[in-house]
Amino acid sequence: EAGVTQFPSHSVIEKGQTVTLRCDPISGHDNLYWYRRVMGKEIKFLLHFVKESKQDESGMPNNRFLAERTGGTYSTLKVQPAELEDSGVYFCASSPLGAGYTFGSGTRLTVV
Amino acid sequence: AQKVTQAQTEISVVEKEDVTLDCVYETRDTTYYLFWYKQPPSGELVFLIRRNSFDEQNEISGRYSWNFQKSTSSFNFTITASQVVDSAVYFCALKLSNYQLIWGAGTKLIIKP
Predict the structure, then answer these.
(1) What residues of chain B have any CB closer than 8 angstroms to a CB in chain A?
(2) Considering only CB atoms, which chain A residues are within 8 Å of B93?
(3) pLDDT level of residue A19 (50, 70, 90 thresholds)
(4) Which of A58, A101, B13, B110 has the CB geometry, 3.0–4.6 Å to A93, for a possible disulfide?
(5) What is the DSSP string of B46-83?
C-alpha cells in the first residue's frame, strides 16, 4: 500500500510569490490533515478535511493560505503571497475514520 | 489548557544505554489519545504508538516501552539498549475530540557509538 505522498519535498521561493503544495493521501482515507512546523516551534494543526469538506480550518493562519481537496482525493495547500514567516515544514496526514494518522515526508518551504 | 510538554530539548547518550523521554500533557477532554512519533534525519514522521485514555496498561515493543500514568498526566517513552539508529527527534502528541493533534516541542535524541 502506498503511503502518504507529498510534493515537492523542497521548495524555495521569493517573498511575494505563490507556492502550491500537494498531498496524496492513502487511498480510501477520508480524513486528511495539514500541519506545519515553523522554525524552532511546535508542529501546529492547520486544517482537517473529511472527504472534500473542510471539517476544521481553525488552524489556518490567515487568508493567504488556501486549501482544497477536490473530489475527496488529493489536497493542495496554496500560499499566496508567501511571506518569510511561512517558511517551515508542511506535513500532511491521512487516516480512516477513527484510526491513527499516517504522515507524509513533508514539504520543506523556504521563503527568501 | 490543552498542551503537551516535552521538557527535554536534547538528550545525548552512549550506545547501549537506556534512555527515557518524558511527556506530560494537559487536557480538559475525558477521552483522548496519546501518540509518539519519530522523526529521523530524513524528515518523515514515523508512527510509534497510540494509546487511548482508558487504557493505562504499559506497552512494550521490542526495545521500546511506554509508561502511561493518568495520575501524573504523563506518557513516557523508554528505549532500552539504545542504538545509533535510534537517533532522531521524538514527538509526543495528544489527540483531542475534534481530531486535532497537539504536539510537544520534540526531544532530539543523539546516540553516540
Answers:
(1) 35, 37, 42-47, 50, 91, 93, 98-106
(2) 43
(3) very high
(4) A101
(5) EEEEEEETT----EEETTEEEEEEGGGTEEEEEESS--
Residues 6+ apart with CB under 8 A from A53: none
pLDDT tens by residue, B27-82: 998 889 999 999 998 888 999 999 999 888 888 889 999 999 999 999 999 999 99
Q: Are B82 and B17 in contact (CB under 8 A)?
A: yes
Nearest residue of B to residue A49, measured between CA atoms: B99
Which residue in A48, A68, A64, A66 sits closest to A56, CA to CA?
Answer: A48
Angstroms from A104 CA to nearest CA on chain B: 6
How far is the alpha carbon of A42 from chain B, nearest alpha carbon, in Å? 5
Asked if A105 and B100 come within 8 Å (Cβ–Cβ), the reply is no
DSSP B43: -
CB contact under 8 A, A31 and B99: yes
Structure confidence by residue, pLDDT tens digits, A70-87: 888 999 999 999 999 999
Residue whose C-alpha is closest to residue A104's, from B91, B47, B97? B47
Closest of A41, A60, A7, A9 to residue B91, by C-alpha = A41
pLDDT number for residue A60: 96
